[in-house]
Amino acid sequence: MDKKTILHILFLFAISAALIYLTGSLLMSIGIMMLLLLIDVYLRQYDSRKRKEWEERKLAQGKQEDDKKED
Predict the structure, then answer these.
(1) How confident is the model over 55-68, as a mean pLDDT?
(2) Cα separation of 50 and 57, whole Å?
(3) Buried b / exposed e across 27-36, counting CB within 10 Å, b at 16+?
(4) CA dist 53 → 37, 43, 46, 63, 65 (Å)
C-alpha cells in the first residue's frame, strides 16, 4: 500500500473514533460511517471518470496537433 492509502485509512479510523465519542452510540456511529464511506466511493468513482475523460481529451488534442504539424 502506498502512503496515500494508509493516510486515508487512518483518517477514516479517526473519524470513526470521533463519531463513537460524539454520539455515544455504536449503532448510530456505524450508520453515519456507512453513509460517509458510500459518499467517498461515489466521489472517487466520479473523480476517476473525470480524470480519464480529461486524459483522453488531452491525448486527442495532442494527436490533432501532431497531424497538423505533419501537413
Answers:
(1) 83
(2) 11
(3) eebeebeeee
(4) 24, 15, 11, 15, 18
